[in-house]
Amino acid sequence: MLPLKKIFSILVVLITFSISAQKDSTQVDDLKIKGKIKINSNYFNPLTPSKAAFYSAIFPGGGQIYNKKFWKAPIVWGAMGTSIYLYLDNNNEYDRYRTAFKMREAGLQDEFTNNDGSLTVSRNGLISAQKTLKSNRDLALLTTVVFYVLQIVEASVNAHLLQFNTNDNLSFAPSMIYNSSTYDIPKFGFSFKYTF
User: Fold this and answer.
1) What is the mean pLDDT for each group of 10 consecutive residues in the chain (196 residues)?
2) What are 170's strand-pairing partners?
3) Which end of the chain is more exposed for a tag (fewer CB within 10 A), N or C?
4) Do residues 104 and 121 make contact, with C-beta atoms less than 8 angstroms apart?
5) Inter-axis angle of helices 48-58 and 123-162, to 10 degrees?
């Protein structure tokens, strides 16, 4: 067992070293920079994905334009425009057949009844057409909502991915490994190269 005097002296030495190690030897109080500070254009901006998502939410395709992926905006517009057109067309046709069905049930002549009283579309045909057109209309509305959400997500994810370092200092490529001393069959593998 160590005597109390030695333990005390060891503690004093340790405390002295820890205090002296915590002193800052590089005090910089009056630092002045001459000229302009250059900011790397590839810096990370944490607000970029949220801005891209916001622009896509306000105007479909706006996030793609913000990300400078201009070729994606017409794809978004075409997909959403097609689904909106299908919704409106099916809704108009549904209203047309619904009106004809209501008129026929009230005993009036509808657009699918000829002047001589013959029917071009039967009562069951009107009911079937309403069901089909309503189903198609609802599907087109769901497709429009899905395209809207997907283009927001795509803009945000693309903005995230654009900030990754993809230069040649970081690469992953297949390679063949030759062993010239044994003259074996070449071995295949992958090499991961990272340089500073």
Assistant:
1) 66 62 57 68 75 95 94 95 97 96 90 85 93 96 96 94 71 63 64 58
2) 194
3) C
4) no
5) 150
Are 159 and 64 contacting, i.e. CB atoms less than 8 angstroms apart? no
Residues near 91 by beta carbon (within 8 Å), at least 6 away in sequence: 133, 137
Assigned token pair, 114: 């000829």
Site of tokens 């706006």:
62
